Amino acid sequence: MPAAPLPYRAPREPEVDRLLREPVFIIAPVRSGSTLLRMMLNAHSQVHAPHELHFRRLEVHFASGLARKALAALDLDRADAEHLLWDRLLHRELARSGKRVLVEKTPGNAFSHRRIAACWPDARFLFLLRHPASVAASWHEADPERRGPEEAALDALRFMNAVERARAALPGHTVRYEELTGDPETALRGVCGFLGVGWEPGMLEYGRHATGEPAKGLGDWREKIRTGRVQPGRALPEAAEVPEALHRICAAWGYAAGGAGPVASGSTRAAGVEPQGPGPEGAGAEGAAAEAAGGERRA
């Protein structure tokens, strides 16, 4: 049984309790091009987008009752202490870079989007979408011995559903992998406008600005990303080739699947993807359970 979700709250005094201002979080499923996006953003002179930090896996535990009591006297609980730790870690990373905008892209953040928004009330969100069947196929290819095609589709769908819940709950800017690889300049100009920074052509040649090799477990480590340049995406699948389990999320994201053509992006009700009802801490029941369990199971 997963542990109950840890109660959390927004900082009562953001100006005192937070060092990091307006952090940006990429909310995306696995195998959606988030490493490509973060490396192109990191090539910008004012944007720091480090490898996946997995900060939400950093927890605070009390070694004694007196430690708990001492924090309570400061009007802080365990979740508050974790938020202070997360904020300090990310602020340190930004300060060391010498840049002014931090972008973080761990895919599991989709499962904790509500808590992230509570931790940083001024956070901004970039939603990265990709054809769900392409996500599933790439997830299978990442470790074919571990995940067969059907299992990969169902596992990837957990991430995609979490992303869709986040899109329904939070404002932000949406960009598609197909745009990022098909017309990267236009896609990045839109992202830069959202971040409040100017477009820089060097973002397209992100390999020239890379600070280290991508490491397995901290982002995409395969040959395509190591080229340092945007590579063409795979051809989109025919609608009839899309696994039935992915039909609803395809429709919600505006991709054709089954016998239906694409619908307007975000039309979740028309697509048959019902919004989640409130659960613990206001999260959907499925989302709260996923957050409590850690959400993602990564390769």
TrEMBL record:
The keyword Transferase applies. PANTHER family: PROTEIN-TYROSINE SULFOTRANSFERASE, PROTEIN-TYROSINE SULFOTRANSFERASE 2. Keywords: Transferase. The keyword Transferase applies. GO terms for molecular function: transferase activity. Transmembrane segments: none annotated. Coiled coil: none annotated. Residues 262-276 have a biased composition (Low complexity). Its EC number is 2.8.2.-. It is an enzyme of class 2 (transferase). Residues 261-299 are annotated as: Disordered. Pfam families: Sulfotransfer_3. It comes from the Bacteria. InterPro entries: P-loop_NTPase, TPST-like. This is Sulfotransferase.
